C-alpha cells in the first residue's frame, strides 16, 4: 500500500498542486512520520469550487437511477479496499485493527449502501392546494470533516449530498488525510462525472476558512469542535450560506437502581473508551443511583483495568494511542484538573504506566465527580470516564441535562417503560435504552451546542435539499 500522496482530486483527475508546503502525517503509536500530503491554499479551493459549480447543473439533472448507480459502484470499489482502509486508519489514527475493520471501515459502507437506495427513490413531489412542492439540491457543498472517524464522517456528508444531486468539495482533517485518498481512489474508479466530487487537503485556518467563505459554496457541512463550528457559522453567516454542524458532546449514561448493573457498566465503559475515547457520542458521564453506586464504582474500575494499551496492529490491544501529542496533553490536563477539583481516581490516571513510545493515555476512571466541575462539563476526547452519584430519576435527569451539549446518552433500567420515560426527558439528539444497537438509518445530531441539523438516513438526505413551491 503506497502512502505517498502529492496531489489533489479536481474535476475528475488527480492534479499536482503548485509547489508549496506539505503536511506530515504521523503514526501516533510510534510518533514517526509515515507520509506527507499537500497543504492546500485558497487558490486550490477556488479551483475545486469552480469544478464543482461547473458540474452541478448536470449532476442535479441526472436521473436518480444514474446517481444511485454511481454510489453503488463506489460501494463496490470501497468494499474491495476494506483491508487497506482499516490498516490505514490503524496507522494514521491508532484505532486497534479489529475495531478499525468493524467500525472505521465497515460502518461507512453500511451508510453508503443505505444512500444507494435513497438516491434511487428521492422525495416525491407534493400537491398542496394550487401549489406543486418540489425538492431540489441545495448546490455546491463544502464538507469539512474531523480526524476521529476519517471515513465514516466523510461518508455521512458525501453520500447524502451526492444522492440529493449536490456536488462536493471535501477537506479532510490534516491529521488523518490518508483514508480520504483511498476513498478518492474508489471515487475515481466508480466513474463519477468530472467535478462532482473534489478533494483538497490542508489546514482548517487556510482550506477550511476558504471553503466557509467562498461565495460559490451554497452549504457548509462541518463535524468537529464546538469552537470551530461557531467560527464556521460566523463566516458563513456573512453571506447567508446554509450550515450543518455536528459538534461536541458530553453524554450521560444513566444507570437506574433496577438496571442490570454488570451489563450497564461493562457496555458503558466500552462506549466511553471506544476509539480511545475520541468519539463525540461517548458516554463520558456515568450517572448511578446511590443505592448501587459503590458496586458500580468497583465494577467500573475492574472493567477499565481490562483495557490493554499497545500497538494497534497487535490483536491483544484494546486501546490505541491518542491522535497527537497535543491531544494527549489536553487529556492529561483534564485528568489533573478533575483530580484537583475533588474527583477520586480509581483507575488509570497521570501516573499509570503507558508504552514508552506513542501518544498514549491510560484508561482512566474518576469517581465522586461534581456535576458542575470541569470534568463533568467539558468534552475531554480521551479515555476518561467521570462517575457521578444521583438520588432518583428526577435527579438523574437534572444532572444529565446539566450540560451545554446534547448529542447522545443512554438509560438502563429493568423496566423499559421507566427507561423510556427518562429517555424522553433527556435533552439530547439520541438515547440508547439498555444497550440498544446503533441504527445508521436513524437521524443523528444534537441539541444545544452539539450542533444544527441531522445526518444519516432520510433525515440526513433532507439537509441537502431546497424546497420550492410552484403555483398553478
TrEMBL record:
<keyword id="KW-0560">Oxidoreductase</keyword>
<dbReference type="InterPro" id="IPR016163">
    <property type="entry name" value="Ald_DH_C"/>
</dbReference>
<dbReference type="InterPro" id="IPR016162">
    <property type="entry name" value="Ald_DH_N"/>
</dbReference>
<comment type="similarity">
    <text>Belongs to the aldehyde dehydrogenase family.</text>
</comment>
<dbReference type="InterPro" id="IPR016161">
    <property type="entry name" value="Ald_DH/histidinol_DH"/>
</dbReference>
<feature type="active site">
    <location>
        <position position="246"/>
    </location>
</feature>
<feature type="domain" description="Aldehyde dehydrogenase">
    <location>
        <begin position="14"/>
        <end position="470"/>
    </location>
</feature>
<dbReference type="InterPro" id="IPR015590">
    <property type="entry name" value="Aldehyde_DH_dom"/>
</dbReference>
<dbReference type="Pfam" id="PF00171">
    <property type="entry name" value="Aldedh"/>
</dbReference>
<protein>
    <recommendedName>
        <fullName>aldehyde dehydrogenase (NAD(+))</fullName>
        <ecNumber>1.2.1.3</ecNumber>
    </recommendedName>
</protein>
<dbReference type="GO" id="GO:0004029">
    <property type="term" value="F:aldehyde dehydrogenase (NAD+) activity"/>
</dbReference>
<dbReference type="InterPro" id="IPR029510">
    <property type="entry name" value="Ald_DH_CS_GLU"/>
</dbReference>
<dbReference type="InterPro" id="IPR016160">
    <property type="entry name" value="Ald_DH_CS_CYS"/>
</dbReference>
Amino acid at each position: 500500500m503506497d502512502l505517498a500522496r502529492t496531489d489533489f482530486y479536481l474535476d475528475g483527475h488527480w492534479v499536482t498542486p503548485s509547489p508549496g508546503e506539505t503536511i506530515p502525517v504521523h503514526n501516533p503509536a510510534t510518533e514517526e512520520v509515515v507520509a506527507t500530503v499537500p497543504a492546500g491554499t485558497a487558490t486550490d479551493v477556488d479551483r475545486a469550487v469552480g469544478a464543482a459549480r461547473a458540474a452541478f447543473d448536470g449532476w442535479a439533472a441526472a436521473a436518480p437511477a444514474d446517481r444511485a448507480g454511481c454510489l453503488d459502484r463506489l460501494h463496490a470499489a470501497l468494499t474491495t479496499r476494506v483491508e487497506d482502509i482499516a490498516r490505514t486508519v490503524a496507522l494514521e489514527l491508532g484505532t486497534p485493527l479489529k475495531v478499525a475493520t468493524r467500525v472505521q471501515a465497515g460502518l461507512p459502507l453500511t451508510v453508503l449502501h443505505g444512500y444507494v437506495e435513497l438516491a434511487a427513490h428521492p422525495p416525491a413531489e407534493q400537491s398542496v392546494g394550487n401549489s406543486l412542492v418540489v425538492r431540489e439540491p441545495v448546490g455546491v457543498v463544502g464538507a469539512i470533516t474531523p480526524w476521529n472517524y476519517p471515513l465514516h464522517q466523510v461518508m455521512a456528508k458525501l453520500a447524502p449530498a451526492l444522492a440529493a444531486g449536490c456536488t462536493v468539495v471535501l477537506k479532510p482533517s490534516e491529521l488523518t488525510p490518508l483514508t480520504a485518498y483511498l476513498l478518492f481512489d474508489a471515487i475515481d474508479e466508480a466513474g463519477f462525472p468530472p467535478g462532482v466530487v473534489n478533494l483538497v487537503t490542508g489546514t482548517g485556518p487556510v482550506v477550511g476558512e476558504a471553503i466557509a467563505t467562498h461565495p460559490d459554496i451554497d452549504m457548509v457541512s462541518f463535524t468537529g469542535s464546538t469552537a470551530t463550528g461557531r467560527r464556521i457559522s460566523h463566516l458563513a453567516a456573512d453571506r447567508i450560506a446554509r450550515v450543518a454542524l455536528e459538534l461536541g458532546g458530553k453524554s450521560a449514561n444513566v444507570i437506574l437502581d433496577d438496571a442490570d448493573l454488570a451489563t450497564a457498566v461493562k457496555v458503558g465503559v466500552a462506549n466511553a473508551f471506544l476509539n480511545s475515547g475520541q468519539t463525540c457520542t461517548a458516554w463520558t458521564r456515568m450517572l448511578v443511583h446511590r443505592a448501587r453506586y459503590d458496586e458500580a464504582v468497583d465494577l467500573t474500575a475492574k472493567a477499565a483495568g481490562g483495557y490493554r494499551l499497545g500497538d494497534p496492529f497487535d490483536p491483544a490491544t484494546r486501546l490505541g494511542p491518542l491522535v497527537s501529542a497535543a491531544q494527549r496533553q489536553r487529556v492529561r490536563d483534564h485528568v489533573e484538573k478533575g483530580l484537583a477539583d475533588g474527583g477520586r481516581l480509581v483507575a488509570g490516571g497521570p501516573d499509570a504506566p503507558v508504552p514508552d513510545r506513542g501518544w498514549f493515555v491510560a484508561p482512566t476512571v474518576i469517581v465522586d465527580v461534581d456535576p458542575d466541575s470541569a470534568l463533568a462539563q467539558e468534552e475531554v476526547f480521551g479515555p476518561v470516564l467521570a462517575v457521578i452519584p444521583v438520588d432518583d430519576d428526577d435527579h438523574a435527569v437534572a444532572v444529565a441535562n446539566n450540560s451545554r451539549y446534547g448529542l447522545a446518552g443512554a438509560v438502563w433500567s429493568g423496566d423499559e417503560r421507566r427507561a423510556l420515560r427518562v429517555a424522553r426527558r433527556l435533552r439530547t439528539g439520541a438515547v440508547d435504552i439498555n444497550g440498544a444497537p446503533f441504527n445508521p438509518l436513524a437521524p443523528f445530531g444534537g441539541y444545544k451546542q452539539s450542533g444544527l441539523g441531522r445526518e444519516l438516513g432520510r433525515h440526513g438526505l433532507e439537509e441537502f435539499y431546497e424546497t420550492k413551491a410552484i403555483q398553478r
